Amino acid sequence: MMQLSPNGKSYLMIPVMIFSSAHYSAPQSIETQYFKDVTGSHLPIDANAHILDVALADVNGDGHLDAILAVEKAPNRLYLNDGTGKFNWKKDVFLAASYDTEHVCIGDFDNDGYLDAIFVAEDDRNHEFYLGNGDGTFRNVSDRLPAKSEANGLDIGDVNGDGLLDIIVGNTGLTPQSFLWLNNPQKPGHFIDYTKEGLPALRLETQSVKLVDLNNDGIVDLITGNEVPPNRLFFNDGKGHFTEQSERLELKVPLHTREVLTFDANGDQHPDILFLNLTSNGGAFEKDPTARLLINDGKGNFKDETAKRIPKQEYSTYAGAVVDFNHDGHPDLILSAIKTPPFEAMQVQALQNDGKGNFKLVTKQVIPGVTVGRSWGIAVGDVNGDGIADLFIGQWGTQARLLLGK
Asked: Which of 19, 168, 283, 365 lies 20 to 30 Å from 59 when distance is taken between CA atoms?
C-alpha cells in the first residue's frame, strides 16, 4: 500500500519476508579464485543429455577449440566455439543415430592435415569413424573399422613407429578382448586388425585404456583400467607387440576402475599412474573408490603410495583431468564425483598438489558451488584465448558445464 514519507513524498510499502535457515539457502557461487562457471551463458542448455566424453579441438580451422561430444543414446554432437568460449551446437554433423556411445578421440588419421573423429559404443556395439574436411564438416567412413564390440575404453597413438595414428579399444561383454587396430601405411585412414599379433589373448573387462611411454624408451606402452580386477600394464616393443608386465603394478586393493590418468605427480620427470574408481556402477557400495596413485621408480615399476598422497573418498569417480589450476607449476587434479549409492549428483572435486605429489582436497576454494551434476568426461583446454586452461565437463543426465580458468 502507499504511505507518505516525512518529506511528503509517497512510497510503496513492501512486505518483508523472514525465512528461517531451515527454509532458505544462499545462492550457490558461480566463481572462485580459480574458476568461473559460465555454463548458462556459454553452453547450449540440455539438462537431459548423457554426455559421457568430451574432446576439445579446432575442427574448422578458425584457431579456436571446438567441443566434440560423445553422447549416450543420442546422436553425437559438435559445439563450435566463437573464440570467446561461447559454444553453439552445429547439428546434423554426425550420424543421426542414438547409439550407446561412450568415448571419443580426435586425431588426423589419414594424414591430410585435418582432424578426424572416432567414437566407440557399448551395448549396441556401433562404433563411428569420421574423416574431417577441415571446415567443421565430416564424412562417415565407419565401415573402415575392423570390428564391433561392447567398447568402453579408447585411445590413439603411434604404436609401431610409422608416423600414423593407431587405435586401442578396451572392451567388455561376452568377448572382452581389447582391440589393436593399426593404421594402414599404404592407405592411411584405413585399419588393419592387429589384435592377435599385438595383444595377449586376455579376457579383460576394460573401461579405460591409455597409451603412454612408461619406461622411458621412447615407445608408447599400454595400461588398462578394468571393472573386474586387476588392472594391467603392457610394454610395447616398438612394433606394436605388447607384453604383459603387470607384476610392475603394485595393486593393494581390488578396484573398479573407470579411467586411467598418467602425469608426473612428484616432479621427478617420470610418468606416474592414477586410477579413478567406483564404489559400483550405480549399485551398492562394493569397493573403495579412492583414486589410487602409483609412483614410477624411473624404471617402469609402480608403487602404490595412495595412503600418504591422496585423501580418502567415498564417492565414485567416472573421469578426471590434470590441470595446474593454481599456476604454481605443479599438476593438480579435477575429479568427477557421484554419490553411489544412490547415484546422486555432487560437486566436482579439486585436489591440489604440493609439488611433491601429495594432494589435499581444496574443492570449496577452487570449484564454484554451482558446478554440480553427475559428472563424466572432463576436457582441458584454453577455449577463450586468454592463455589459461578451462574445463569442459560432460555429465550424465545433468547439464554439461563450462568453467573458465582465472
From this structure: 168
